């Protein structure tokens, strides 16, 4: 090669190297696996996206979100999760427990972060809380079921109750955990446990209809579906003046009588820090599952008046919030 040819080759190599150096860095993609609709999830997950921005993850600039919604048809979530996995995001954010379960069925390699869970060890999502050991980690709502606490409060607030309705979701592992924890308590109290499940809006109407036809004296619930469709649930039960109790303050704000559980907005916001760690290179296998440290009792005095329920002074005194 003559001198002119050598110089040309060097120039070409330099341009190629400079082009590679100046090419923009790849923007990571976070798959958001959410069982409800875009509109409902925008409200529920706002604390997550706010916290992600605070951590430096700006949508369209430093991160891309790939949204996958189940539109409240939980029986379709395996298909929705499989389609999201096929798009190969860098991490899957599956906030509610059922979404994390279907995400884990769809992939054992893409990192998965959940924001609420009950007994993730028992569900097979993690090996243990301190060292998950696989591709899943996140935040629990509680290790054991909160249903016994709801039942205890219902006995205190509604002492005349004889039939206890439990409204769950056959696709949600928490439903069986809750029901199993209630069976011995209800039996010892000489009461009747009436279970019903729903995995879609149409099934919700039918399940509530069966409970009201029994009739039950109170409905205890802790499912993602009933949380997302809480306004519909309250409208159905209010028609027969049957009290509802759940694990989140949001369901009380919608008209339920009371709740006991961890604050959801805090858990949702906190889960952003775990997604942040994964995006920066940490492995879910070594990120401990976090547990909430504060639980709240919220009662709805307005709902009590509508239902004709007298709230015991002792319950009001220890409530963290009373909705008037």
Question: What layout of secondary structure does this protein have?
Answer:
Layout: H1 3-22, E1 29-34, H2 38-44, H3 46-54, E2 64-69, H4 77-86, E3 91-93, H5 97-106, E4 112-114, E5 136-138, H6 147-157, E6 163-168, H7 173-188, E7 192-197, H8 201-213, E8 218-221, H9 224-228, H10 230-238, E9 244-246, H11 249-253, E10 258-262, H12 264-279, E11 295-300, H13 301-307, H14 313-318, E12 321-323
Parallel strand pairs: 1-2, 1-3, 3-4, 4-5, 6-7, 6-8, 8-9, 9-10, 11-12
Antiparallel strand pairs: 10-11
Account of the protein in words:
There is one protein chain. With 324 residues, this protein is of the alpha/beta class. It folds into two domains: 29-143 and 264-286, Response regulator (Rossmann fold); 147-262 and 295-323, Response regulator (Rossmann fold), CATH 3.40.50.2300. It has helices at residues 3-22, 38-44, 46-54, 77-86, 97-106, 147-157, 173-188, 201-213, 224-228, 230-238, 249-253, 264-279, 301-307, 313-318; strands at 29-34, 64-69, 91-93, 112-114, 136-138, 163-168, 192-197, 218-221, 244-246, 258-262, 295-300, 321-323. Helix 4 crosses helix 5 (97-106).
Key descriptive features of the protein:
17% strand, Rossmann fold, 7-stranded mixed β-sheet, single chain, 12 strands, 324 residues, 5-stranded parallel β-sheet
What is the tally of beta strands? Answer: 12
Indicate the radius of gyration in whole angstroms. 24 Å
Largest sheet: 7 strands, mixed
Q: Any idea of the CATH topology of the largest domain?
A: Rossmann fold
Instruction: Categorize the overall geometry.
Output: elongated
Count of separate structural domains: 2
Question: Which structural class should the secondary elements be placed in?
Answer: alpha/beta
- Please write the CATH class name of the largest domain: Alpha Beta
Count of DSSP-assigned helices: 14
Which regions are unreliable across 5 or more consecutive residues at pLDDT < 50? 19-23
N-C termini distance:
88 Å
Overall helicity: 40-55%
User: In the CATH hierarchy, what is the architecture of the largest domain at level 2?
Assistant: 3-Layer(aba) Sandwich
Classified in CATH, the superfamily of the largest domain is: Response regulator
Tell me the strand percentage band. Answer: 15-25%
Element order, helices and strands? HEHHEHEHEEHEHEHEHHEHEHEHHE
In round numbers, the mean pLDDT is 92
Tell me the strand order in the biggest sheet: 7-6-8-9-10-11-12
């Amino acid at each position: 090669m003559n001198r002119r040819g050598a110089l040309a080759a060097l120039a070409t190599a330099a341009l190629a190297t400079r082009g590679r150096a100046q090419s923009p860095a790849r923007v990571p993609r976070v798959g958001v696996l959410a069982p409800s609709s875009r509109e409902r999830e925008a409200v529920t997950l706002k604390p997550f996206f706010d916290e992600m921005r605070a951590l430096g993850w700006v949508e369209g600039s430093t991160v891309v979100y790939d949204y996958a919604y189940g539109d409240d048809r939980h029986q379709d979530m395996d298909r929705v999760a499989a389609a999201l996995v096929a798009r190969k995001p860098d991490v899957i954010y599956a906030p509610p427990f059922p979404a994390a379960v279907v995400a884990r069925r769809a992939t054992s390699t893409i990192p998965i972060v959940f924001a609420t869970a009950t007994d993730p060890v028992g569900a097979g999502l993690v090996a243990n809380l301190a060292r998950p050991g696989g591709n899943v980690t996140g935040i629990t709502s509680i290790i054991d079921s909160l249903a016994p606490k709801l039942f205890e409060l219902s006995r205190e607030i509604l002492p005349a109750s004889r039939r206890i309705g439990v409204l769950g979701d056959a696709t949600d592992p928490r439903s069986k955990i809750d029901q199993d924890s209630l069976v011995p308590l209800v039996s010892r109290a000489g009461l009747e446990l009436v279970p019903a499940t729903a995995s879609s809006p149409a099934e919700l109407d039918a399940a509530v209809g069966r409970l009201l036809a029994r009739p039950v004296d109170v409905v205890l619930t802790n499912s993602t579906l009933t949380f997302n469709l809480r306004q519909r649930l309250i409208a159905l039960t209010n028609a027969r003046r049957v009290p509802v109790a759940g694990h989140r303050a949001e369901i009380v704000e919608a008209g339920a009588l009371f709740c006991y559980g961890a604050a959801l907005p805090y858990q949702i916001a906190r889960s952003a820090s775990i997604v942040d760690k994964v995006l920066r290179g940490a492995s879910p296998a070594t990120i401990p599952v976090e547990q909430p440290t504060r639980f709240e009792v919220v009662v709805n005095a307005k709902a009590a008046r509508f239902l004709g329920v007298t709230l015991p002074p002792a319950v009001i005194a220890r409530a963290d919030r009373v909705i008037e």
